[in-house]
């Protein structure tokens, strides 16, 4: 009898399955991710302790969460209306130094914290996607026993705030403020250098001990050659880059995988939520160009957009008094929307 291709296949398949059966095995059992240290583990001689003290705000403590320790601060009267402040991509909670104390002085209970991989929070060796950032906040609010709060996000923190409102609507108490908010940035507006530096290959090389040693030497050299007064915001980025073993990887992964892009669905969810929304954006913002404020407003039609003429990206530093006035007005009980249309 002549064997057809079907017969050949019928003879091969059982042998193939038998081979797979004999070789089949489970992969290695799941393990906990590697947790990298924060600024808290730098020696006392490190300038970071002066630039960004661990006790910059009162009421500081650590929450031991599944992916590492998270540094947070609770300031303001315990019975005050609750507000969460979420910082952006690279600068930890020091970016709120001219805003948080003002809100607290006006009777609000303010929760600040460092995102994973920044400042005094540990850096888990995981993908820094949107869910990592939103669940960090949800777990932190559970840890401090907060049922809900007003949510304020800056830059990437605006993306975190928006996604958090979509994923955990019961934890949002009716008001969301987004300052220079990311979340729907197009790839064409991210520099080629940033794209290159955030590639896995570059991050693998930059994680090697010789490279990190070189970065520390470079940072120390550049510091000793600076005659002018230190800018704490710029300095803390430099110190994190040079001394935190997973900071660069955390920032790169957040840029590549995190709440920087693709959150149109979250903004649409925010539009349906019934929350009051405030957008604050500067016309000279080169990090998140001003056009995105209008694009966000088109997705969230009920949002009030306040434009700061000639304002750049770090509005909480350069225009703190204006930001404070806008937030206090927005967070007040009597705040009402402008008429739509």
From TrEMBL:
Pfam families: Abhydrolase_1 (PF00561). InterPro entries: AB_hydrolase_1, AB_hydrolase_fold, Carboxylesterase_BioH. Keywords: Hydrolase, Signal. Gene3D superfamilies: alpha/beta hydrolase. Residues 83-318 form the AB hydrolase-1 domain. The keyword Hydrolase applies. One of its GO terms (molecular function) is hydrolase activity. Residues 1-24 form the signal peptide. This is Alpha/Beta hydrolase protein. It comes from Suillus plorans.
């Amino acid at each position: 009898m002549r064997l057809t291709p079907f017969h050949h296949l019928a003879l091969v398949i059982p042998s193939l399955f038998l081979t797979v059966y004999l070789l089949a095995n489970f992969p290695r059992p799941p393990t906990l991710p590697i947790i990298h240290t924060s600024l808290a583990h730098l020696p006392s001689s490190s300038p970071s302790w002066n630039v960004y003290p661990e006790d910059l705000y009162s009421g500081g403590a650590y929450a031991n969460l599944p992916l590492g320790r998270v540094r947070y601060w609770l300031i303001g009267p315990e019975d005050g209306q609750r507000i969460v402040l979420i910082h952006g991509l690279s600068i930890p909670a020091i970016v709120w130094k001219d805003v948080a104390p003002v809100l607290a002085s006006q009777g609000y209970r303010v929760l600040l914290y460092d995102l994973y991989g920044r400042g005094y929070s540990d850096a888990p060796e995981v993908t820094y996607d949107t869910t990592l950032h939103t669940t960090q906040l949800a777990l932190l609010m559970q840890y401090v026993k907060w049922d809900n709060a007003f949510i304020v996000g800056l830059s990437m923190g605006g993306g975190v705030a928006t996604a958090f409102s979509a994923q955990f609507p019961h934890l949002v108490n009716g008001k969301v403020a987004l300052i220079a908010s990311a979340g729907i940035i197009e790839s064409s507006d991210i520099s080629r250098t940033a794209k290159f530096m955030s590639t896995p290959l570059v991050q693998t090389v930059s994680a090697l001990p010789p490279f990190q040693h070189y970065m520390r030497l470079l940072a120390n050299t550049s510091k000793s050659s600076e005659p002018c007064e230190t800018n704490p915001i710029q300095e803390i980025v430099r110190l994190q880059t040079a001394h935190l073993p997973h900071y660069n990887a955390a920032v790169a992964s957040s840029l590549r995988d995190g709440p920087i892009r693709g959150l149109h669905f979250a903004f649409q969810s925010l539009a349906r939520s019934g929350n009051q929304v405030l957008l604050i954006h500067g016309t000279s913002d080169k990090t998140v160009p001003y056009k995105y404020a209008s694009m966000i407003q088109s997705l969230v039609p009920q949002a009030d957009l306040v434009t700061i003429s000639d304002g750049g990206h770090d509005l909480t530093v350069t225009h703190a008094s204006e930001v404070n006035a806008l937030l206090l007005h927005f967070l007040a009980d009597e705040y009402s929307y402008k008429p739509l249309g």
